[in-house]
Specification:
By secondary structure, this protein is of the alpha+beta class. It is about 25% helix and about 30% strand. It contains four helices and eleven strands, in the order E-H-E-E-H-E-E-E-E-H-H-E-E-E-E.
Length: about 220
């Protein structure tokens, strides 16, 4: 598919774990996509469980990455959001890269670095969505007609290549167009602050009273 080497499984513990194993064994290459129809041990940020039933997209992309880049998270978020938009869905982005539709989570991202590579793990709810106590979830099927997982993957691959190679000014502008919480009060580490936007290095800008500070990767509450 396109310029990706696709490796597909019916069910494995985790596409992200398999990607790490392939990098460690020296069998990973740039632009490799590991896809599973289901996962028995899917995971998200902070080792949270990602419920992974059949009917959704679970993919880990492997890319060359000699250096860590905080801006990558936004490129991935925009790529996913644009993929959903291609199917007539109107997404929003919750800092830094959760994708919501009508206030409900439809996609999540896990970015991890390993050796000279970066692994971008993406889950998109297509035909079913899990019940999660912490937040509401939704799926693509709630907003459009029946759709094949492979069709979503094809569009996602094109958007990943587009937005990962776009200049960050364009990525930042598009991210902020779809972001929720901008110019609103959020909570960060228990304190109230106003969410201002992103700087040129990919940090979230928050303001408390007259003091501005930068946030990388931490969670905020809207």
């Amino acid at each position: 598919m396109a310029n990706y080497k696709l490796i597909s499984f019916d069910k494995i513990p985790s596409t992200q774990t398999r990607a790490h194993e392939m990098i460690a064994s020296g069998t990973a290459t740039d632009h490799m996509a590991i896809v599973a129809h289901a996962q028995s041990a899917g995971r998200g940020r902070y080792r949270r469980t990602w419920v992974s039933h059949h009917g959704n997209l679970y993919v880990s992309f492997i890319y060359n990455s000699p250096e860590r880049d905080a801006r990558l998270s936004y490129s991935v978020a925009v790529a996913i959001a644009e993929t959903l938009a291609a199917f007539g869905i109107s997404p929003n982005i919750k800092w830094p890269n959760d994708i919501l539709v009508s206030g409900k989570k439809i996609s999540g991202v896990l970015i991890e670095y390993s050796g000279a590579f970066v692994i971008c793990g993406i889950g998109i709810n297509i035909k079913n969505n899990p019940t999660v106590p912490e937040y509401k979830t939704t799926k693509m099927l709630d907003y459009c007609s029946d759709i094949a997982v492979l069709d979503v993957l094809r569009v996602l691959m094109r958007n990943m290549d587009k937005w990962m190679h776009s200049d960050f000014a364009s990525v930042r502008a598009r991210w902020m167009e779809m972001a929720i919480g901008l110019n609103q009060t959020v909570r960060y580490r228990g304190n109230a602050a106003k969410m201002i936007g992103l700087n040129e290095n990919g940090a979230l800008i928050l303001r408390h009273d007259k003091q501005y500070f930068l946030v990388y990767g931490d969670e905020i509450t809207l």
